[in-house]
Amino acid sequence: MRKDQRLGMLPDPFICRDGHRVKNLADWEKRRQEILEDTIGLEFDGMPPKPEVFRVEPTHLRGKGATSSYRIHCGTKKNPFTFCFYVFRPDIDGRLPVVLTGDLTYTANCSDEVIAEANRRGFIVVKFNRNELAPDYPDPKRQFGINALWPKMKFSAISAWAWGYHRVVDALETLDYVDTDHIAITGHSRGGKTVLLAGATDTRIRYTNPNGSGTHGCGAYRFFQVEDEDAGYEDAHSEPLSFMMENVGYWMGQGLWDYVGKEQTLPHDSHFIKALIAPRCYLETNGYGDIWGNPRGSYLSLMAAKEVWKFYGAQDKCACWYREGGHRHGWADFNALFDFMEADMKGTPLPDDITRVPYDDMEPLHDWEVPTK
């Protein structure tokens, strides 16, 4: 018998602040704005503002079939800020779709082999280092990255990293070989949490793919995955909110301290943030053995979020893909994303491994359904 802990049912995202339930898409668009304001503030202490200045500087141009680099100049008029991104372009004419990752420092993830396969399929790969935007350690005096631009604001490190994705999308819009209608973003672990936020807060991004993102990402706060100690997994349970707040609190909205140990009282859960992406394309990828990343809780959250895609009649745009193994982001994970993108662009059915049910032994964690329009 499983030892998982269910801490209550997932709240209904269709219930508005004033208590009435969404009846149509116009209602939902208003409700979406409420969710955007409430959840991003609580989860991440908000987002940085748009830059006052913006310019793209080519630093190494190589054309088709080669790697080019660019520098983004952005920030405020008083405090300019720069960071670089790198374009791995296939030898193909025309405007091409893009797969964008901020996990540049995770060199084993988006490897040369992955880039070659993306290029073979006609995709451009773009990389940047999100840690240039904010350090991956506490910065209480807000001296580094874009923290220094707005030192009196409280946005989290993940907010700054997601802001970096948005600025690269700004830059991609200036390049005449990019198909800006087909931009995908992907990231792993803390990078997956970043991608979920970036996709939720920028409608220009067509494909959002968080990988192994766990708690504060795709995992439901109201579901705590627990395995037998002798089951052979690296971890016996999923990551608690308390651990995150105590160890990597600079990723988080500080209001989450109020919910440590009482996650069931949160006014939202991870399915609210996923729902902000609807009806655009969403694929979350996980490993069955990544227990710390709460793969079961991620699936339960996805089941709830998918009700919003159903409301749009776009349920085939919301999917998940699971593989054997633990906490990694490699060839198979990227190829699932490539397959997902190709099915959307070609208008063909999703592959069977994306439509299969990863857990057929789980009851939903939500007891509400999509409104009847």
Strand order of the largest sheet: 2-3-4-6-5-7-8-10-11
CATH architecture: 3-Layer(aba) Sandwich
- The rounded distance between the terminal residues' Cα atoms is 40 Å
Q: What is the SS-derived class?
A: alpha/beta
Number of β-strand runs: 11
Helix proportion range: 25-40%
Note the beta-strand portion.
15-25%
Mean pLDDT across all amino acids: 96
Q: What gross morphology would you assign?
A: globular
Q: For this structure, what is the CATH class?
A: Alpha Beta
Number of individual domains: 1
Describe the structure.
The chain is 29% helix and 19% strand. With 373 residues, the chain is of the alpha/beta class. The longest helix has 20 residues, at 25-44. It has a 9-stranded mixed β-sheet, with helices on both faces. It is built from 9 helices and 11 strands. The protein is globular, with a radius of gyration of 20 Å. The model has no long low-confidence stretch (mean pLDDT 96). It has one domain (5-355): Alpha/Beta hydrolase fold, catalytic domain (Rossmann fold, 3-Layer(aba) Sandwich). It has helices at residues 25-44, 112-120, 157-172, 190-200, 241-247, 270-275, 295-312, 331-346, 352-355, and strands at 5-6, 53-60, 67-75, 80-88, 96-101, 124-128, 178-188, 207-211, 223-224, 281-287, 318-323.
